[in-house]
Every structure is written in structure tokens, then in C-alpha cells.
Amino acid sequence: MTHQTAAIILAAGKGTRMNSDLPKVVHETCGAPMVCWVARACLEAGCSRVIAVVGHRQELVREALERIDPGDASIEFAVQDEQLGTGHAVRCAQPLLEGFAGDIVVLCGDGPLIRAETIEQLIAEHRGSAAAATLATATVDDPSGYGRIVRDAAGAFVGIVEEKNATDQQKRIREINPSYYCFRADKLWSSLDRVTRNERSGEYYLTDVPSLLLAGGEPVGALAAVPAGDALSVNTPEQLAQTDRILRERLAANTTGASA
Question: Active-site residue among 17, 172, 194, 245?
């Protein structure tokens, strides 16, 4: 690609609800650690660099990802020593991208249902609209637990509201944020400089960045590109089993969007 794209995969979490001391993202689904499905999708989508942000028992995440043949790309690692939120996790990868002037895709390592073609669509929309940031969204029957996508009367993106901060009316919004982002590198770093700690959690949230960009007059897009069935992220053994079933059904139907 003439205009390069890097990917940052957030893979530092413990996953306490998995009932295991393993890092959440190395739990296997359909024969491979879930983070490998995400990394492979990024590579297939043409990302020239893939950076995994690791933390808890990072050696296991490194070992899993080092088994992937990245082809002409590369898989690199950044370390998040403290769990200070998604914004902080992305910031941990910044030194590796010093001087990188392309676009940066940010994804979570616990979303193994991601498809390469969805990432490609996100990048194409982002570049075609000359946006500072673009989100890929999903519309689901049960939005419980997800951040909601707020739009104005004309349908333009206004912001992301987390469920715990949402009004009753906002909680009825079915368009959700499955955490698929594409940013211009310079706009991402300058906005992260302005993200402040959340008063409740003490963490820095990546979801604050789109609103900061909008407030600064920058264009931000929200593309309804993620199929509802692909939006599931894994937080429990039950959800892991669900993704395993979905991926096996994809393979059986020969419609796999990413392989690991």
C-alpha cells in the first residue's frame, strides 16, 4: 500500500471473568488463541505493521503471536505495565510508531470474530472521507454492556456514551461501539495528550478521543460496517464457546474472514 497502515491490538488484560490466570487473549477459540484471529485479520487487511500491547503474563501472548507468519509485515510488542485504560494502552505503543505518518487501526485482542474485509472497509471509508478518525459500528438486538453511538438528527456521529453514563433514552440505542477504530496518526497522538483520567475508574479511555477531535473541528466518521454477529467480544468462558461455534460455522461454510 502506498499509504501505510499500522495496527495496534490491545492485549494486556487479565480477563478475570475467564476463571483462569492466563491472559484473556490467549484462550483458544476454533483452534487458535483469540488474539491470533485479530492479528491475522489485520495482516490480511494489508496492515504493514501490527503492534500488540501486552501486559499480564506477556510471555504467553508473545509466544502465541510469534507463531504467526506475518509475511511482508511484522508483529511487534509494546508493554503496558499498569492497567490504566485503553487510552493509556494505545499510548504505550507510541514510541514504536515514532515518525509513522500513516493511519493507525486500533482493535481489541478479545474480538476474534473480526474479518479482514471489515478492516479494509473501515480503512477505505476513513481515507475516502479524509476523516481524522473513523469508527466501525454494529447494530445489535441487545446492546447491553456496550458503548452506544450517538448521532444527531442528520445522522452524523456525535460521540460514544458508555452504558453506565447513558440516559434511559440513550440506553435504547442499538448501534454500538465494538471497538474498531482508524485514526490519522498525528490526530491520534495529539488527542491522547488531552485525554484526562476518568474520575470513577482512574483510567484513560480511548473512547474520549473521537469527541475531543469533534470538539476541535476535526471530521469523525462512524461507519455501520460490523455485522451484528461479529460484534461479540469475549469476557466469559460462555462467550468464548460462542465464538468457537461461530468460527467453526464460518469455516464449514467456507466464508472465513480471517484465519489464524
Answer: 17
